[in-house]
Design goal:
OB fold (Dihydrolipoamide Acetyltransferase, E2P), alpha/beta, single chain, disordered N terminus, 4-stranded antiparallel beta sheet, 5-stranded mixed beta sheet, about 25% helix
């Protein structure tokens, strides 16, 4: 897990900023980023389009050698946890790669032929007459997923019912000091994001709508956001830069009055919102994502709109390439994101960042025995003793680890981030919970 403290931030602290009550890590530094216009990435010559984002692979309905159009259905999400997969480029199916060990299944589409979406004047459908069932049908057909989790969006919407009294939250928070994907999308596509929130209001009928932003959010952009949000019946909540504040459970905890009951907040990101907008308004399948290519080893960091299946190495080259060999290349989050196995890893629907981190950013060091310093206890938002859970789980004492609170761990990564001994606590907990052993 990489760590990237970034550079000195300039935002002032706000006494009114919201946050969760216990634990967490104060993050006062953030890498500078200019909100320039978002650009389209170059199209991949061969798009390695993933068939799975979460638990289940979609069922392939094409064959090798078959000609496909841009946006054509390649695989159908029939099982729970799977979503429809569409071709991000026109061409032909060059190869179908089945799951083999660590290599995920994907359909390789070789670029050829003409585009039916790119470069064309977008269709614009009037959506205000659509009902809940119409929206959910479109979401399912176009293969939309929640970009932060990979869960099919239609399943999340189906699970909500009228009268739950929940809050609809647009989560533009990013505690990662390197990444600016959600903030950049919110700023550059604000009218589309607000339209998507209006669609979600029709579907969910929430009690309230809140847009969550970081206290370092640009002040001039914040004024525009507050004005336009108010016109749509939404409010803007400012949150402290406190890791891991961007987790939905902690956002909900900070917004909910102490002791208040009710359904959990329905949380979506700006990247999910624009995918919803494009599916409904422009009849576009989920075939492109916004990716922040950055980290200290990238020459010219920026946010690109990339087609699914683009190798991450091609995005790095488009940003000027590398300044030198990175210590690690991390996906989505420098503080807790997975390592990229190679630069051939393709962009998927949940890819929001590709971060090539230097050794100074990762501060790599070998793992040492626990010294019982208590740092992990101080930062745990759930009030757990991570070092004790680690000790019990490592010795195979499952019942005692459970009693200590293993199942209450939200896997936020705060304990791993502050651990002086560099013990990968959260990774160990994940392994233990999934396999029953360390």
């Amino acid at each position: 897990m990489g760590r990237a403290p970034g550079q000195e931030g300039t935002s002032e602290r706000m006494s009114s900023a919201k946050s969760f009550k216990y634990g967490g890590v104060e993050l006062t530094q953030r890498r500078h980023y200019d909100h320039e216009p978002l650009e389209n990435a170059f199209l991949p010559i061969n798009a390695y389009i993933p068939l799975r984002e979460l638990d289940q692979e979609a069922k392939i309905i094409v064959t090798e050698g078959m000609e496909v159009r841009e946006g054509q259905l390649l695989a159908r999400g029939e099982a729970k946890g799977s979503a429809n997969v569409h071709s991000s480029v026109p061409g032909y199916v060059r190869r179908i790669i089945r799951t083999d060990g660590e290599r995920p299944a994907c359909v390789v589409v070789a670029l050829a032929g003409s585009f039916s979406i790119l470069g064309k004047r977008p269709e614009r459908y009037l959506w205000k007459s659509l009902n809940r069932a119409d929206f959910i049908h479109i979401v399912q057909e176009k293969g939309l997923v929640q970009t932060s989790t990979g869960r099919p969006l239609h399943e999340l919407l189906h699970a909500c019912h009228d009268g739950d009294g929940q809050t609809l939250v647009l989560n533009a928070l990013e505690m990662d000091p390197c990444r600016r994907t959600e903030e950049a999308v919110l700023v550059s596509r604000l009218p589309d994001v607000l339209d998507a929130l209006a669609m979600l209001q029709k579907i969910l009928k929430p009690a309230s709508v809140t847009i969550a932003v970081d206290q370092s959010f640009p002040q001039d952009e914040k004024a525009t956001l507050e004005r336009q949000a108010a016109e749509r019946g939404a409010s803007v909540a400012v949150f402290k830069r406190r890791f891991p504040q961007d987790m939905p459970v902690l956002i909900d905890r900070a917004l909910r009055p102490e002791g208040a009951a009710g359904a959990p907040s329905f949380v979506v990101e700006p990247t999910t919102a624009v995918a919803l907008h494009d599916a409904v308004v422009a009849n576009k399948a989920h075939v492109e994502v916004y990716v922040h290519v950055g980290g200290g080893a990238v020459k010219a960091p920026r946010v690109l709109k990339a087609r699914l299946g683009t190798p991450i190495g091609e995005l790095i080259e488009e940003c000027g390439g590398l300044t030198g060999k990175p210590d690690r290349v991390v996906l989505n989050d420098a503080l807790r994101g997975p390592l990229a196995s190679s630069l051939d890893v393709p962009v998927g629907k949940t890819t929001r960042a590709v971060l090539a981190l230097t050794r100074e950013e990762t501060r790599s060091a070998r793992e040492l025995p626990c010294v019982h310093c208590g740092a992990c206890v101080k930062v745990c938002p759930e009030g757990l003793r991570p070092y004790m859970i680690q000790k019990l789980a490592a010795s195979g004492r499952a019942a005692e680890a459970e009693a200590e609170g293993l199942s209450r761990c939200i896997l936020c990564g705060a304990c791993s981030y502050v651990c002086w001994s560099r013990i990968p606590l959260v990774r160990n907990f994940q392994i233990f919970m999934s396999q029953g052993k360390l």
